[in-house]
Every structure is written in C-alpha cells, then in structure tokens.
Amino acid sequence: MPDVWSEFLPHPWNLIATGTVAAGALFGFIGLSAFFGIWAERKVSARMQDRAGPTRVGPFGLLQSLADGVKLIVKEDVAPAGSDKLLFRLAPYLAFCASFCGFLALPFGAGLVAQDLSVGVFFTLAVLSSEVFGIVLAGYASASKWSLFGGVREAAQVVSYEVPRAMCVVVPVCVAGTLNLNTIGAQQVGGFWNWNLFHDPFTFVGFFIFFITSTASCKRAPFDLAEAESELVAGFHTEYSGIRWSYFFLAEYGSMFAVSGLAALLFLGGWHTGFLPFEPSAAEHLGFWAGNLLNLAVFVGKCWALVLVMIWVRWSFPRLRIDQVMMTCLKYFLPISCVLLVGVCLWQLVVPAPVALAVKYALAFVSVGVPLGVFASLFRSAGTASVPVGQLPGAWGGQPSTLPGRR
C-alpha cells in the first residue's frame, strides 16, 4: 500500500499509523465476513432443508448475527472448576490471532496488501496452521474428556492434511517461480485462460485437492471431527460460552475466507476478472484507488463463492469417521499431491510450448463451456409445462402427484 501517512507524520509514527489502519481494516473485514458468513450459512442450510432460516431480526434476517453477538457479549464468562484457567482463557485468542495473521500477506488487489512479503505463501500457510495450537490448548485446558478428544482429533487431522495441502500449494508456485502472493496474482492478468488453474492438467487437479484439504483444515464438515456434536457434545469448545466461544467461530470463518483467498490467488487469477486485458489499477487506466476498488470487489466475490461452496458441502454430506478421514488423506490425497508436484515440474521441462498452449486453451474453454451448456439447457428444456395434470415430471414420470397444484 502507498505510504500516505508520511506526508502528515514523522518516522516512526507514520509506520505505526499505517500498521494501525491496516490492522483495524483487517479486523473489521474478518468481523464482517463472520457476520455475513453466519447469516449465509443459516440461509443456505435452511434453503437446502426447506426452511425459511432467519427472518425476524432485520430485513431478510440480516441482523440475526448482530443479535447473537450482543447475546454472547452479555453472557457470563465461566470456566470449569478443574480447568487450567490461564490456558483456558488464552486458547480462543490464540486461535483467532492465527486466523487474523493469515490476512497480513494476502493481497486484495495490485499492491493492496498489509505487508508485501517475498515469502507470502509460506507465511500464510505457517500462521494458518498455528490455529491448531489454540484448539489443542482449549481441549487440554477444559478438564473435559470430550474437549480433550476433540483437541487430539484436531491435532491428528491438521498435521496430516497440512502435508498434501502444502504440496498442492507448491504446484502453482513452481509455475509462478515466486512465493510472493502479489507477484503471483499480477502474473495472471488478462483472460481467464491465463489463470494458473488452466496452466496444465496438474494445476487443474491441484486446485481441487487444495480446496478439499483446506476445507478439512478449517474443521468444516464432512471433516469437522474436532467438534462432532453427535459424538463429543461440542468437541474442543464444549466448556466455552459467551464471548470466548464466539472467538472460535471468528477464527473458523476467518480461516475459511483466508484459504479461499489463497486459492483465488494461486489458481483463480487473484483479483483479475478474467475478461479485462489490462491491470485496472495501473496509472494509465483507472489509477491505484479506483482500479483496486474493482479488484477488491472481484477478489472478495471469488472468495465468497468458495466460502459458499464450503457451506454447500457442509450441508450436503454426512460426517466421516476418524479412520475414514485419516485414510482419505494418507492413502489418497498424499500420493496424488506427490504425483501433481512431480508432474507439473516435468510438464514445464518436457512439454513443448505449442502443446502446453493448446492444452491450456482446451482446459479453459471446456471447463467454462460445459457448465454454461448445462445451465443453458435448463432454459431450453420443456420443464414441467408438458407434463399431464396429476403426473410428476422427469424420473418420476407416471407417478401420481400429491402437490396441490398438480392434482
């Protein structure tokens, strides 16, 4: 970010002011992300279960998260009698700080980053992985067997899934030749076929493996064994209430957005629309602030799309058993990630440039064309208009309908 405070404040106060503004903006952004994420999760799950979801507090129930936040703030903050009071109170803040620090090196636009690090990919993965310390401490310090089981499960799960996730991250890093997230995002300017997702078959598959392993690292269903309310009451946060309980959810939704931002930067073109052939924030086009306003909207939109996929997956699949979770990682994801890493290196060394370019265009246009064709076919179909009265459409053809409008 440009140092605007140097014109008003001497050194080192200009650095302190810049850091304070960046930290405040990131904290507010994480809070708003959790605010709307909780509302979206309730609405999406309600829609999938044929319910209305939040409707009473604010328009469309938008203020339900605010009401819940006020309720949590005023609730009594208690700790179990046999717990380690210091560690019990420290654990939520440790988990949230790990999620918060993941945003420090995450660029929301060209140069729109709190701290432009040359090792931004490594830093982001490292700090997001440290969230597990807060989870394990919460389970250990709660003096509850359910909390302890949840903490130990989280430790085993995170340590396992970090390996294939990190190896999938190295796949686009090998393509970009740098660990700087700002540089990786800038390299994908232009059409969507320039995104790392379509660079070769190995980066294409790597995106999906990275997204699945990141979902597991965020303790999201079907990998939410650290909570597992059907087995462990509420898992690692069974004994928490009030504001400390809410910090765990701030950390969870913050981590969901952070890993989605990492996926967008590494694979999905970062802040680029995929249609503009230039960088909007360049001085000869829209300028830094106006261009990055567009970049910010595009980047946040991509991240929210991936977060909504996580929510969709949570309410679509049942929870896996602990042995199934570990087997999926060690028996499938780990070997696949190793093949992807070796494959992308050989691809750049062996495959001729014309062949690589043809494969890139084929991957890009087929991946975009097939979903668009399926979506368009929904409007070309006759639908239920040609179904006789009293009959059901599609695979249920010939069966009598019990709906009021179909009798």
TrEMBL record:
PROSITE patterns: COMPLEX1_ND1_1 (PS00667), COMPLEX1_ND1_2 (PS00668). It holds the Pfam family NADHdh. It is an enzyme of class 7 (translocase). One of its GO terms (molecular function) is oxidoreductase activity. InterPro entries: NADH_UbQ_OxRdtase_su1/FPO, NADH_UbQ_OxRdtase_su1_CS. Keywords: Cell membrane, Membrane, NAD, Oxidoreductase, Quinone, Translocase, Transmembrane, Transmembrane helix, Ubiquinone. It catalyses: a quinone + NADH + 5 H(+)(in) = a quinol + NAD(+) + 4 H(+)(out). It is found in: Cell membrane; Membrane. Its EC number is 7.1.1.-. It is a multi-pass membrane protein. The keyword Zinc does not apply. Its main location: membrane. The chain crosses the membrane at residues 15-39, 93-114, 120-143, 253-273, 293-317, 329-349, 361-379. NDH-1 is composed of 14 different subunits. Subunits NuoA, H, J, K, L, M, N constitute the membrane sector of the complex. Belongs to the complex I subunit 1 family. NDH-1 shuttles electrons from NADH, via FMN and iron-sulfur (Fe-S) centers, to quinones in the respiratory chain. The immediate electron acceptor for the enzyme in this species is believed to be ubiquinone. Couples the redox reaction to proton translocation (for every two electrons transferred, four hydrogen ions are translocated across the cytoplasmic membrane), and thus conserves the redox energy in a proton gradient. This subunit may bind ubiquinone. This is NADH-quinone oxidoreductase subunit H. It comes from Gemmata palustris.
